[in-house]
């Protein structure tokens, strides 16, 4: 079987030792005050060249880094329950259920709501982490709370 492009990549190959002296030779650098665009600065010993890496880093990597830093913090803040609003909800629901019991017109699911609201409040009528977890257990969603 004859290969068509056998020497396409090998005809230009040259040993590295052939170019070693050119790579190791020192070049005289002339200092400049304002070099053109890809050259950033020229000193007596150093020539600094800017590549496209800095542009890509500034336009892609840094915004993604900020996104992946602050989004989890925002999502974690939203993930935590607001205990004061849960306390207001529990007091409001218990007052509403008491009114419905007085008028003898209980709505569907009022018993479950009352159990949840009573489990949400402690003896002082406040919501704590322990009572919040107990209320989630009464509601039947404690496993979901820990699986997230």
Concise account of the structure shown:
This protein is mostly helical and 148 residues long.
How does this structure look, described?
The protein is rod-shaped and about 100 Å long. The protein has six helices and two strands, in the order αββααααα. α3 crosses α4 and α4 runs antiparallel to α5. The two termini are 60 Å apart. The model has no long low-confidence stretch (mean pLDDT 80). With 148 residues, it is mainly α.
List the helices and strands and how they pair.
Blueprint: H1 16-24, E1 39-42, E2 47-49, H2 53-79, H3 83-103, H4 110-120, H5 129-139, H6 142-147
Helix pairs in contact: 3-4, 4-5
Uncertain ranges: none
How many distinct helices?
A: 6
Overall helicity: 55-70%
Strand order of the largest sheet: 1-2
Strand content: under 5%
H and E order: HEEHHHHH
What is the mean predicted local confidence, pLDDT? 80
Name the shape in a single word.
rod-shaped
Structural class: mainly alpha
- The number of strands is 2
Calculate the terminal CA-CA distance, rounded to whole Å: 60 Å
- Main sheet? 2 strands, antiparallel
Radius of gyration: 36 Å
